[in-house]
Amino acid sequence: MFHVIQYRPLRLITQASLSSMCFKLMLSRPIAFAQIWKSWFSSCSVAGNKNIILMGPPGAGKTTVGRIVGQKLDCPVIDIDDDVLETTWNMSVSEKLQDVGNEQFLEEEGKALLKFSASGSVISLTGSNPMHSAGMQHMKTNGIVVYLDVPTTVIMSRLKSMKVDRIVGQSPGVSLKDILQFRKQFYRRWYDIRVLCGGDTAEIVAEKVLDAVKRYQNSELETFISTRSSRSGRSMEKDSRKYFSDVVTEGLAPDGGLFVPERGLPKFTAGEWQSLIEATYIERAQVILESCIHPADIPASNMAEIIGTAYGENFTCSKIAPVRHLAGNQFLLELFHGPTASFKDFALQMVPHIFAYCIPRSCNYLVLVATSGDTGSAVLDGFSRLHDRDKQRIAVMNFFPEDGVSPIQKSQMLGCQKENAWSVGVKSDFDFCQTAIKQIFTNSDYTGFLTVEYGTALAAANSINWARLLPQIVYHASAYLDLVHQDIISFGSPVDVCIPTGNFGNILAALYAKMMGIPIRKCICASNENNILTDFIRTGVYDLRARKLIPTSSPAVDILKSSNLERYLHLIANEDGQLVTQLYNQLENQGHFQLRKDLLDKLQQDLVAGWCSEEDCLAAIHSVYSTTGYILDTHTAVAKVVADRLQDRTCPIIISSTAHYSKFAPAILRALRIAEINQNPLSQLHLLSSYSPLPPVHWGLLETLKKKGNEDHQVCAADMSMLMSHIETLIQNHFM
C-alpha cells in the first residue's frame, strides 16, 4: 500500500472549525489566499486531512497545476502516473497500455488506486482514473475532487502539440474527439468542484483551484438578505443567516422584502464564457447554476440529476432554447418548447425538484402561486412530475384571475390539475392574487396556525422565489453564446435584448446575465397598454393612482405591480434596504413613489422602455406572418413592435419569444384576419395547424386539450378570508 507521510499537512476544514480570529482575518484583510491557507495549515492537526484531487482529460494540465497548488500550500504533490502507476508497474504508462490493452489497463489502474492512500496532499489523477468506479470511490473518501474543465477543442490542440496520438479507449474507427466526449460522463459523475479553464495558464488555473476549494469549504459566506433589511440589522442577525435552501423554502423574506444574495452573483471571465460556446444548453445550465448555488445546498451530482430531469425529455427541441433569425438584425429566443409552451417552463420544470431536495423531510409543504396565465400551468405541470414520495408531502394551489386569462390558458391550467396540484379562480385581477399571497406569507399568526394545526408550511413558486430567477439567467446567457457559435458575432461584441415585461422577472434575469459578464448593452422593456413600467423607466415615477388594469391579448404582462422590480431597485441603490422599504411603504400607502435622479440615471444606463397598443400588436403578427410565414405570439409581438421602434440597428437584438402562439389562438386568428372563429380551443388549434405555420402548433398543448382532465375548479370572491379558507380545505384533503 502506498502511503505518503508529510511534514506540513493540508487540512480542508469546515468554517465551523475555524477560530474566529482566522475567520475575521480572512474577511477583513486583503491577504493573498494562499498565505491564509498556509496560516491555517501550520496550526492544524495532522489527523483527518483531506486531499485536493485534480481530475480532467489528458492535456488538461493536472500535473503542472498540481505542482503549483502544492507549492503554494507547501504540501506534498502526487502524480498518479509518475509516482504511483509507473512505480508499481516498473514501466511507463504507454508501455503498459500497449502491453495489456484498454480494458485490462483500466482494471490494473483501478487496482493501483485501491491500494493507494494519502492525506493532506495535492493529487493529480490520470485522464482515465475516473472510469474505474471502485477506485474513484476510494479516492473520494478522503479527498475533494476538482474537475479541470477544459473545452475539447483546446484539449485536441494541446494533445496535437504534445504529439499524443493514442489514449486509453482509443481503437481503430474511434476518434480522439469521440473518446474525449465519451469520458465527460465519468468526470461529471465524480467531481465536487468544477474549475472552468479555457485557455488559461497553469498559474491562473491553480489560483482558480484554490479559490474554488475555499468557496467549497465556506458555505457560510454565501448568505442571502432581504431587499428591505438595513445594514445595521444584518450585523445583528448573524444567528439567523439565510442560505439558498432557506430562501427556496421560505420564498418571501419575513419583513415583506425579497431575498437576494448578500455578496451578489459570480462574474465569469471572458475566457470562461468562451469555454461554453461549444457546450450544450444542459452543460451551460450546469456550469452557471453551480456557480450560483453552493454545493453545500445542492452538490454537483444532484444538480446534474435535477437539470437532466428538467430538460432531458420534457422539451420538444433538442437545443432547449434555440435562437432563430427573424429578419435584419433581429433574432428570436424561442422559450416555448417546454411542456406548457411558455418561458415559465425553464424555471418550473426545475424548481419543484430543487424544492423537494431542499425542504426538510419532517414537514408538509403547500406551494402557493399567483398567475396571470402562463405560470399556473407551468407550476402545476412541474410539481405534478415529482416522484410519488414527494407528491405526498408537497402540494400546489394556484390562484388565477377567473376572467383574466385566455380560454386556452384556463383549459390548460385545469387540464394540468393532478392529485397534488389544484387551481382556484379568483373574481379579480392578477395584482390582487399576487398581493394576497404576499399578505398571507407575512401573516405570522396564520402561517403559525397552519404549522401547529396541520403540520404544514407555506412556500412560494412565483418569481418572488429566488430559485425561479436562476434558470432564466441561463437562457439569456445561452442565447448570446449561440450567436457567437453561429458566427453572427464574436465574443465581446454587444447585443441588445427586448423582453415583454410584466412582473420584471425575465428582464431582471437578463440584467443578472449582464452582471455575470454577458455583453448585453441595453435591456429593452416592452409593455402592452398596461404601460406602468414604461412610464417608470422613462420618468422615475411609479404611480398606481388612477390606473386600472386593462385586459389585453397579452395577459402575462397585464400587471401593474411588478414584484421583481424591487430586487433591481435594491441593486442600483447599493443594497440600501431602508430606501427600498421607504419606497415600497409609500407605494403601499400612497400609491406611488419617485426615484432620486442619481438612481434614475443608473436605471437608464441599463434599461430603455416602450409600449405597444392592441392594434399594433395584432398588426405585427399579421405582418411577420405575411413576410416570413412565422407566427409570433401576442407577447412576442409586443416586444417586436417595441424593438422596431427603439433599436438603433448598430448591433443584433435578441427578442424573447416568451410563449407559443397556440396559447392565444383567438387573438392569433383575428390577427391573421380569419373571419369565423370556433369557440372550442381544440378546434382553434386545428384551424391554425391547417396553415402549416412556423413553428408548428405546440404538441404538448394539443395533448393537454385532447385529454379529459379535471375540468372542475373552485371559484372564489376577491376576499382574503375566502382564499385562506380554500388553503385550509386543500391541506385537510391532501395531507390529513
What do these coordinates show?
There is one protein chain. This protein is of the alpha/beta class and 736 residues long. Among the domains are: 51-219, P-loop containing nucleotide triphosphate hydrolases (Rossmann fold, 3-Layer(aba) Sandwich); 323-339 and 496-707, Rossmann fold (3-Layer(aba) Sandwich). 48% of the residues lie in helices and 14% in strands. Strands 10-11-21-16-17-20 form a six-stranded mixed beta sheet, with helices on both faces. The chain has a five-stranded parallel beta sheet with strand order 3-5-2-6-7, with helices on both faces. The chain has a five-stranded parallel beta sheet with strand order 15-12-13-14-22. The longest helix has 20 residues, at 466-485. It is globular, with a radius of gyration of 27 Å.
CATH topology grouping of the domain at 323-339 and 496-707 = Rossmann fold
Provide the helix percentage. Answer: 40-55%
The major β-sheet equals:
6 strands, mixed
User: β content, as a range?
Assistant: 5-15%
Secondary structure category? alpha/beta
Strand order of the largest sheet: 10-11-21-16-17-20
Radius of gyration from the alpha-carbon trace, in angstroms: 27 Å
| Apparent shape | globular
Architecture of the domain at 323-339 and 496-707, according to CATH? Answer: 3-Layer(aba) Sandwich
Number of helices: 34
**The CATH C-level class name of the domain at 323-339 and 496-707:** Alpha Beta
Unreliable parts: 1-48
Q: Report the end-to-end length measured between terminal Cα atoms.
A: 57 Å
DSSP strand tally: 22
Domain Threonine synthase N-terminal: 238-311
Cofactor: pyridoxal 5'-phosphate
InterPro entries: P-loop_NTPase, Ser/Thr_deHydtase_PyrdxlP-BS, Shikimate/glucono_kinase, Shikimate_kinase/TSH1, Thr_synth_N, Thr_synth_N_sf, Thr_synthase-like, TrpB-like_PALP_sf
GO molecular function, one term: pyridoxal phosphate binding
